[in-house]
Every structure is written in C-alpha cells, then in structure tokens.
Amino acid sequence: MSAPVVSAEELEALIREGVPLVGNYGITIEQLGAGTVRMKLPYNDSFVRPGGTVTGPAMFGLADVALYAAVLSLIGRVELAVTTSMTINFLRRPAPVAITADCRILKMGKRLAYGEVLLFSEGDPEPVAHATGTYSIPPHDPVTLAVSGYHDPEMS
Q: Please, what is the end-to-end C-alpha distance for the chain in angstroms?
C-alpha cells in the first residue's frame, strides 16, 4: 500500500473546518492509506433515534466524509471535490455505540472517483450499512497522483 498524499491530521482539520456539520460529529481517522480510510464516529446520545438505534443521517454523514477523505488521500487537498452521487443500504439495526467506517476507492479517474464504505457498530464484525458513491474531481495538479504512487491505466 502506498502512502497517502495528505496526513490524517490534515484531513481531520479539513473535515472540522470545511465540513462543519459532520466535522462537529467528532469523527476521527484511525487508519489512512492511499485510497483507503478507517474512521470512527464516537457514540453520542444525539445520534440515537427512537427505538435506541443510531440515526441514518449520522451514518450517511460518516460514509460521505469517509469517501471524501479516501479521495483526498489520493489527490491531495483539492477541497472542491464534491459528492456526485451516494447510495446507502442499511443492512441491520446498529447498536447505540460508536460506528466505524471502512472506505476504499474502487476506481479513480481524471474527473470521477468511485468508492465503497462499510459501516460497523463497534465490537460487531457484521456490517450495519453499505454505501457506494461517486465524487467529482475538479481540475487539479495531476502530479499529486503520481507522487502518491497510485496508477490508473485510464490516466496514462
């Protein structure tokens, strides 16, 4: 696995400052690689909906910001990269505990990135949700991708 072109600390700061709604959730990066990220959404009573389960909007926000971080891990701080589409399937009722997101980029092109995110309740190996999404990448310096060691034959 090659190294990401931005640090976990830089991404966490960017999420807090640039995406304050989700940044205020207290999300932290546990692992970061080139095109991969593991993030944690800490448990918070305000994320629990009637029935004692973590609310869908909190999980969707975690999935979206995980995909954002995975994209930026490859292209650097291109802040205007934006979600083009995202689909989430809720598979099981999440327990009222911290939620972990494991994200990976499946396809990285010049203008679009496509990835998937699996969400887990802390301590449970079975996913509670699966999301896929596409990010639009604005024009930027493609040298960043070469430095990251990421190679897409379509970009050659």
A: 20
Which tokens sit at 148? Answer: 């990251």
Nearest to 129 by CA among 82, 87, 80: 87
Please report, for the chain, the start and end positions of each structural domain, with discontinuous segments joined by +.
Answer: 8-155
| Distance (Å, whole) CA 62 – CA 38 | 10
99 CB contacts (<8 Å, ≥6 apart)? 40, 41, 54, 58, 59, 62, 119, 120, 121, 122, 128
Per-residue confidence of the chain (156 residues) as pLDDT tens digits?
Answer: 589 999 999 999 998 888 888 888 999 999 999 999 999 999 999 999 888 899 999 999 999 999 999 999 999 988 788 999 999 999 999 999 999 999 999 999 999 999 999 999 999 999 999 999 999 998 866 554 444 444 444 433
Scanning 19-155, the segments in alpha helix (DSSP H) are: 20-23, 56-75, 143-148
Sign of CA dihedral 117, 123, 126, 127: negative
CATH number of the domain at 8-155, please? 3.10.129.10
CA 91 to chain centre: 18
